[in-house]
Specification:
The structure is a single chain. The chain is mostly helical. Helices cover about 65% and strands about 5% of the residues. The longest helix has about 30 residues. The chain is elongated, with a radius of gyration of 25 Å. The N and C termini lie far apart (about 60 Å).
Length: about 475
Amino acid sequence: MFALIVSVTLVLVNIIRILRVPITFDEPCYDPTESYWQLMMNGWGHANNHVLHSMLRKFFVEHIDYNTFCMRLDSLLALVFFLLFSWLLLGLLFNDRWWRLGAFVFLNILSPFLFEFWGLSRGYGLALMFMIVSIYYFIRYLKDKKILRLAISFVAAGLAVYSNFSYLNYYVSLAGTMFLVNIFFFREQPSKITRETVTFTIVTALFAMLIYEPLKNIYNNGEQSFLGSNGFVDDTVRSLVSEGLMMPNTDSITTLISWAVIVIACLCGAYWLFKYIKKKKSNGANLSTKYGLALFLLLFIPAASLIVQHALLNINYLTDRTALFFIALFALLFLYTLYAVGRSFPKLCGGLFLCILTLAAYNFLSKITLHSTRHWWFNTDDLVVLERIAAQSQNMDGKIKLSVSWTFEPTMLYNINQYYKGRFDTLKEFGATGKKDTTYDYYYLNSDQKIELLLPYYHRDTFFIGGSAVLWKKN
């Protein structure tokens, strides 16, 4: 019952965020006239075209309405299924109901940054949901060796990739884990290996045909160059700690937690390898050991894959939102290992987990907001700005002329078309028509932009976003 209450609460909070958080910079980069085929091929090579999400968004927009809620609807549905399958997955891993409940809460509130993507028109939430579905069916397959479960696991992993291409690292991880688990536990059912290989090959071939062209276009367009090039720890781990926990990017604290996460992951892996070797010597490898090794490999392989890709192919490291799946993978490994160790030290591990869960809950409740997002904080006041301009211009003849900084242009265009259609003239980016242009009634600019040449003709009307942006009004 408590898990249901938590789930309903998270869904309601997410719906409120969907309705209250203004559209953000990357969300309105969507052309309703593009066909499903154009979205699938991604001829422009845009990394922001998260293909499956783009197709679902087009479907909801065309069949319901072209508004912010429908653009974000698939992310909301992804949260619902993520809650369901994470509960089912944890039911497979934890026999104790209290550990299962605590793990469920921890997994869903660990990262307030991750939670934000359940309410945005991006493919990150959709991909994460499919990854959890994939892990659930993979764990079930490890338990009963039914090949259909493995097929579903790989199909779900493929859909995760189709939702966001960074999850190709998870797909590789799933394949590698399947083969390595077979090697570790070969004596159990060696006849299954051929069926597994055939299943993997068929599913992989089908998804390769789907993603090759759009992925090639992204690579040729140089979109991956915006990621990190300083190293796995500096780019991937540190960004996940800083952004994922929404911490101030203080070098000492971020570094400490980053290395603590790495050490914990290594200790978890060492624990399960030790358990495996110990059980193998006694001819009694159990299901718990198999689960633990699988969860470790699912985390370790994509980390190693990123390092190898950068060294051999010069592909940059994933950072913050593109690497969100590492948060879920680490949480599952850590929770399951702590639970396993807790069988020998129940009070110690139970108390430690309660403390960590309390800290995670405090961090989540103190960081989550109902009106803004961390990466696109600069769009928080867009609707407020338009409301103020419209209110001040009620008696103005003709359309309102507005010029904005490039950071506000896509969201302002969307908001004007949605809420103030016919009220504004064609929106222009500041600088595109010359800084001496005094034909505009308002300028909405970043506070650090130089407008000395316009100062005789405009005065500062209002500061927005805590002083980071300024609305200038014509004298």
